[in-house]
Amino acid sequence: MTPIFIACRGLGRSLLAPVALGFATASLVALPSYGLDDANYGQCVADLTAAGLATGSAAASCAGARFPGTLGECVVDVSQETGIGVEDALEGCERSRRPDEVATCTLDIHSALLEQPSVNALEHCSRSLLPERYGICVVDLSDQAQLAVDQALTQCVRAGYRPWTTSPRQ
User: Is 31 helix (H, G, I), strand (E, B) or coil?
Assistant: First the structure.
């Protein structure tokens, strides 16, 4: 190896090290706080069985969950507060990467706009990438624009974040 090659190789390593360290640090900061210590598999099973789910189904769902403690809380909150069946609540909460936000979204829509259990609201919340924001959109559109709940659910799904259509453009 030539001395120039050795010097360039050492220079490349020294310049890239801070960049790599920066990316590693940024990725740790971006993790949700509940993701760091949410290994509550036992609590998840206890929550789901207490809500009325069979033990085998509860164990399978909790074992496959990324955040089992949050999954159990989501199912319990949705089923108890809205009257939606435990199986439907589990399906909706399992579908999302953010089960805690799915519960918040569903509860917000139900408490503000609905008197009967609505699996439709849960399904829309669980399909949204940002469930809390979606719930706020539905409640606000229904209140301010006097839209029916189903119309607001549809409008807010269509209103996804598209930077090229956001005003003002620069």
Answer: coil
